[in-house]
Amino acid sequence: MNSGMKSEFINEAVNAFWEQEACGTQESIIGNLPELSPAWFRQIEAYRYATEPYIHSIAQFTRHSGSTVLEVGVGAGTDHVQWARAGARCYGVDLTQKAIDTTEAHLSLYGLQSSLHRIDAETLPFPNNFFDVVYSWGVIHHAASPERIIAEIRRVLKPGGTFLGMMYGRHSLVACKLWIKYALFEGSPWKSLTHVIAHHMESPGTKAYTCRELKALFSEFSTVQATPIMTVYDRKRLPSWFCKWIPDDFGWFIGLQATR
Q1: How far from 58 is each of 23, 227, 253, CA to CA, in Å?
Q2: What's the structural domain count of the chain?
Q3: What is the H or E stretch that residue 253 is in?
């Protein structure tokens, strides 16, 4: 199978997974609330920022009022609403129609607007040097070819423009727990962290990186910062005394800021 066919196959599988429900809208979060209702969206937003409060420190939505902002992977539109509320000129793309429809409904609830497109972000439908900011939280690592998306992000950013976002960290407690469950306990300790993440974390083919690898992926940018973040997902089912001694270097999230 050539690389083009492989990429198409993986992205089809990713699409099928996320078309079932937009990211962040699973039943464990929203319970029995009516889908797309005001209460449903409020619960999604409350849960997201309670469990991932560092989104605000990385995105700093209000600092970008008046900026032209693209979000790659809009999910349930929770962060997209923050960009619009902050006064950004918003554009958004997603691989799934489910996410586009959910985000449109979310924006409409507050009378907000954005130009949304259902497309594969490996080919963005925007001219060169168009955006002040491109934002993507926990999305690029699901693609078949993250390097293509990153190249497209750089292309559509203005000189001096900023990428803000997050990608998964391979040397993390989350990855370690996955390896113990799906490799060690299954009698296959030779399976790598990369293998278990690709087969057992969300959509098929999910990737995770080291900070060094992410800096290499963004090497065409003039500057790049990669900062590991210890998350509630790392600490889950682990004693608090143990987690207290584990540094952020072993966090599942790696926050990113890169300047074109």
Answers
A1: 19, 10, 12
A2: 1
A3: strand 253-259
